[in-house]
Amino acid sequence: MRRVLLALLLGLTAYLAAALSITTPDALYQCKPSILTWTKTLGPYILNIVDSDTEPIWTSPNTDADDKLIVVPSGSSAAWIVDVPAGRNVTVWVKDGEGNVAGTWPRVIGPGSGGCLGSGLVVQA
């Protein structure tokens, strides 16, 4: 009986360790690079940067034309040049190759330079 419980516990621990999650810096600044990181599961990963001012934060990401979709083939991080105006709220979502989805709490974009707005530059970190 102990062996069965131990096996179940180890299996549950492995499952929870592999659960998809995503993190962003606590502060995001207009036109400054920010590192987005997520738990490595099965790629490819689709990052979706959603305007939280216009979409409820509790909805999972979709492919709205106003959202920023970025595909990262593998790895567990990407650098995003924050091309959103200061004062806006964004939520960052990630979807893995198995269809699992995780998101962040909304972040308010802080002030920065305005030279990058709309560029959407993301590179795998």
Automatic annotation (TrEMBL):
Signal sequence coordinates: 1-19
UniProt superkingdom: Eukaryota
Keywords, sorted A to Z: Signal
Protein name in the entry: Uncharacterized protein
Organism (species): Saitozyma podzolica
Source organism phylogeny: Eukaryota, Fungi, Dikarya, Basidiomycota, Agaricomycotina
